[in-house]
Amino acid sequence: MISSEKFNFGFQYCEQVSKAFHGETLLTYLAQKFRHSNEVEWRARIDKNHVLINETHASADSILNKGDWVSWQRPPWIEPTAPTEFIVLFEDDDILAVAKPAGLPTLPGANFFQNTLLHQVQCYAANATPLHRLGRWTSGIVLCARTHAARKELLRQWSVRAVLKRYRALAAGAPDWNTLTVRTPIGPVPHALLESVHAASPKGKAALSHITVRERRENGFVCDVTIETGRPHQIRIHLAAAGHPLVGDPLYGFGGVPKPDTLAVPGDPGYSLHATELRFRHPHSGQSMLIECEPPELLRLR
Asked: What pLDDT, in 10s, does the model give residues 238-289?
């Protein structure tokens, strides 16, 4: 039987040795800096000539010098499936705005490489790089820069909170308010499977969200959320902190922290969240820009 699963083309990693690892062995460098693999696994790769120093085969005991280039090839692997189609919302020589589907990771990680928005967008426009990320199961607008100057200017706008980001979500419960501002700090907290996840935490970083109820339903309510900060999973955490977790969210419960005894991780599906609007100034012309993206049917107002 021929498998229908497809291998990607693998990936070559390349790192320049810093002063901190000058004089260390190749094995020590790899095992200490890249702890996703242990010494036995790294030695096996080196022995198979999968690791190079300055494009030359090396041994585990090879001594590194500051400035050396260490590279290794990850062989092709079968990635988890994900939708890879996206919609172009706006493009010119400086920027590219696209609509990411739910289920497609924005950036590589957790065995995703080709099945990511970054890879798919760069197949369409090689010079485009996402300026921000959406969670895997969040759909909607992602803005990309196509030049260094555009990237620098747009990141400046992000840093001074000059970019407006509005999301649409389906949350649980029946709030006794129509508008609410949430300022719950967000930071790492312990997790049963992962070392930590971001959640509501008194020791976390400042975060600010403005929630507006748009439609009340039997199983919850549709709301728009404007965020002034961009903490990981901010909307999921802030709605849960307000007592109204996203409907179907497997991870965040009341209080904005992981549900008791949950084994869910941030990348698990179940909730409905969509980036509907992005406002900023064009990095070249300075013109006020509004990018909009219609939400999926479940999040549309009836």
From this structure: 999 999 999 999 999 999 999 998 899 999 999 999 999 999 999 999 999 9
Contact indicator for 139, 102 with CB cutoff of 8 Å: yes
pLDDT tens-digit profile of 42-65?
Answer: 999 899 888 999 999 999 999 999
Residue 286: CB atoms within 10 A of its CB come to 9
Strand partners, 138: 273
pTM score, whole prediction: 0.81
Provide CB contacts within 8 A for 219, sequence distance 6+: 172, 247
| Amino acid letter, 288 | S
> How many C-beta atoms lie closer than 10 Å to residue 16's C-beta?
10
Q: Is 259 exposed, middle or buried (0-12, 13-18, 19+ CB in 10 A)?
A: middle
Q: Is 123 exposed, middle or buried (0-12, 13-18, 19+ CB in 10 A)?
A: exposed
